[in-house]
Design brief:
Blueprint (H helix, E strand, L loop, with lengths): L1 H19 L2 E11 L7 H11 L9 E6 L6 E10 L1
Parallel strand pairs: 1-2
Antiparallel strand pairs: 1-3
Helix pairs in contact: 1-2
Length: about 80
């Protein structure tokens, strides 16, 4: 299942950014996906909701926008709650 790998990679990047910024957790995560990406926004949100519990992304809002890059899935930003 390709979605699981995508979410795992996303969560690893978020964890790295949260830790690098001395944070406790992610509050808002912004991701852009291309119109031809292999995953729809709602499907990405569903997988995120399942995978996030127990990570620094637990409870974070996932914002997904459509980008101009046809097939890219890109982590745009992470709002971090500082400890």
């Amino acid at each position: 299942m390709h979605e699981s790998g995508l979410i795992e990679d996303l969560l690893q990047k978020v964890e790295s950014l949260v830790r690098a910024n001395g944070g406790r957790r992610a509050v808002v995560i912004e991701v852009s996906i291309g119109p031809l990406a292999f995953i729809e926004a709602d499907h990405l949100r569903e997988h995120f909701k399942i995978a996030a519990p127990g990570t620094v992304a637990e409870g974070a809002e996932l914002r997904v926008t459509v980008s101009e890059d046809p097939s890219a899935v890109v982590l745009q930003s992470v709002e971090v709650e500082i400890e």
